[in-house]
Amino acid sequence: MIQDAVVPPVRRRRRVLLAALAAVVVVLVAVLAGRDSSPVGHVTSAEGADRYRAAYDRAMADLPPPAAVLDVRTAFGVVRAYRFAGADPSATPLLLLPGTASGAPVFADNMPSLLALRDVWLVDLLGEPGMSVQDRPITTDADKAAWLDETLRGLPPQRFHLLGLSIGGWTAVNLVIHAPDAPVASLTLLDPVQVYGDIPLWTALRSVPAAVSWFPRSWRDGFNSYTAGGAPVQDVPVADMIEAGMSTYAMRLPQPSLVPEDRLRAIRVPVLAIVAGRSVMHDPATSITTAERVFGPENVRVYPDASHAINGEQPDRVAADVAAFLARIGS
């Protein structure tokens, strides 16, 4: 106790931080030791597959019936895509990229207002829970760009306006960085992670127990509620689907790397950056400053009261900002 009393406050905080990080390492080592050796993402059991599919179907029921369902073969697996007929089928369509573990149905609340603009396509990210099926290892950011580039080229439209939520926003940025000639007309980044800065330490710490499938469901629900600004998640179809994916699907993907600012500046397509003011997946103040610096203040919109669940909290505002952005760039 006497020794602790004379330790400077900065060193004491550093000691606490190191202890916390050591605890995370212990948990991760235990989790990794219990994992199977499959090199591709997969559902861990037949029962898990049935449970996830039932939750996915319940969440999909909140969307309008798709006009088409396509499975696109890529070098890394088969990607599920859905087309929904919008008010202006002649306009370049939107293609929406969901957040991690969430799947296409996460955009249910956004469909009415976005379909009032034009056709909308949804995809399930490859290597994540959903109806896409990974069958070859994805080991680099370039691999992640390649499967999406191949998917876009395998779909009927010649170009797309990409809208990415959370990791979907990172996925969209990663695509145009590694495949600058991909058929992309613009990007809308909806509170992306690992684009303007790293995920905060406290959020990373909270995510570890939620990522362990054999921990209680309440821990995953607690983390999902935390990212959604404390909103209840029990008996919500999309939240049930996300929890089912977290507990039944083993992902085999490299962690997304933070995008360097010079790579953001080099993006050649128009970008709309929408930042949630109460997001816990990044530091909002830093993100706003970075986004305005690299994309210009006129291309940044801040929703001060929104959490990371921004798409479901303010779907009509998102659609209005997207409509104004597309009108401004003339596409």
TrEMBL record:
Top-rank taxon: Bacteria
InterPro entries (alphabetical): AB_hydrolase_1 (IPR000073), AB_hydrolase_fold (IPR029058), AB_hydrolase_sf (IPR050266)
Signal peptide range: none
Entry-linked Pfam families: Abhydrolase_1
One term of GO molecular function: catalytic activity
Positions of the AB hydrolase-1 domain: 93-196
GO CC terms: membrane
Protein's UniProt name: Pimeloyl-ACP methyl ester carboxylesterase
